[in-house]
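Hi, here's the filled form for the chain we discussed.

Project: internal
Contact: R.S.
Residues: 175
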Amino acid sequence: YDSGNYSALLDAALEAREKGVATNQVRDWYNECAYMLRYVKAGVEDPQPFLGGYALVKINNTYGYIKENGNFLLAPVYTGASAMMGSNAAVNDGQEWHIINSAGFKVARTSTPVDYMGILVGGKIPVAKEGKYAYVTSALVVPEILPYDYASNYKNGVAAVKKGDKWALINTNEE
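And the returned structure, exactly as it came back:
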């Protein structure tokens, strides 16, 4: 897989399936390789894995989302985007960041322009402006002072933050 020989791995996965020895890992490799072959050849830049049935794709420096069946959920029209978690994603339409739903409708926008939005997890999303970070809720009200020099996306209720030269792990209740 790491070598990029997706065809060979796809063939091996199919052979394992035919012999009845396919494991969950082999099925995952098959799906990933089928995705990579289809979309890398179609001009997708920096293909991302599927999360919750959707994958973020980049074509000609614009972002969109595809479904696991290969059809576009949302065509690549955004200048910036995060992975879609559940049925929401953060996207930049060239002017500002928004939260969109899986139908492509804008459901929220930031209260003030920001340079970056991460992934909405557990009701919190990291935002950045002029090199500083903060977490906002899905209402997207950006504080006047962004307290961190870096803030990661939440995963399993925990995120990494940096202030000065110090790093810390925080949970959603500490922010």
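Let me know if anything looks off before we file it.
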